[in-house]
Write a sequence for this structure.
């Protein structure tokens, strides 16, 4: 069994974990850079995964230099993302099933995402899963983003449970670092970025998808 403690709640990341959006964001960011005559490498994009927006913008200016046109970049992102997500926001495999299962088992859940509140609310609604989450914590509502544990500490406090009894599901390295620092039980479900030895050591499990996570949780929680 991968869980060293009783499981009393599950905290979800959003992009790349519940929502199949990281590949879309990669296209968005690369096209936005290209439109401004810059090039976003795969390495640079990977470094931005799981990073709150404002911190990501600072990283881009540090990478490209002070002349990088940040306002124009943000504008391009808005236009391109709007086009690519106009028909809805896709779910990752097993996302709907695990949410329904946890609801049927009476397990409390929360969402902790580096996205801002308006984006999180909009994407969850478009994906058809907003109704599952009473507790939502976003990157613009914390003073320090992942890999700092603040967002998970807030989620645990709102759940009213011990951190050691909360499972955190994440797809990013920074998310796993934050969940580990918050003393929760981190499970990585890799999306674009694969776990390193460092990240594996911080996880109680690495799962291939949310179907596998549901099976792992069912062994502990299903009636």
């Amino acid at each position: 069994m991968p869980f060293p403690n009783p499981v009393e709640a599950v905290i979800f990341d959003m992009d790349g974990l519940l929502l199949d959006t990281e590949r879309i964001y990669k296209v968005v960011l690369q096209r936005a850079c290209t439109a401004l005559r810059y090039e976003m490498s795969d390495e640079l994009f990977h470094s931005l995964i799981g990073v709150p927006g404002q911190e990501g913008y600072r990283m881009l200016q540090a990478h490209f230099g002070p002349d990088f046109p940040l306002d124009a970049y943000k504008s391009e992102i808005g236009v391109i993302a709007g086009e690519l997500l106009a028909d809805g926001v896709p779910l990752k495999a097993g996302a709907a099933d695990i949410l329904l299962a946890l609801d049927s088992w009476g397990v409390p859940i929360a969402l902790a995402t580096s996205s801002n509140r308006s984006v999180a609310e909009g994407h969850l609604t478009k994906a058809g899963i907003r109704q599952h989450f009473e507790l939502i914590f976003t990157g613009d509502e914390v003073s320090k983003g992942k890999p700092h544990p603040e967002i998970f500490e807030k989620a645990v406090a709102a759940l009213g449970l011990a951190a050691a009894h909360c499972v955190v599901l994440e797809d990013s390295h920074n998310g796993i670092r934050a969940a580990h620092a918050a003393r929760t039980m981190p499970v990585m479900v890799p999306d674009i970025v694969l776990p390193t030895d460092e990240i594996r050591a911080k996880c109680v499990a690495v799962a291939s998808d949310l179907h596998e996570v549901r099976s792992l949780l069912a062994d502990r929680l299903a009636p």
Remarks:
- The beta strands are 9-12, 109-113, 136-138, 166-170, 185-188, 205-206.
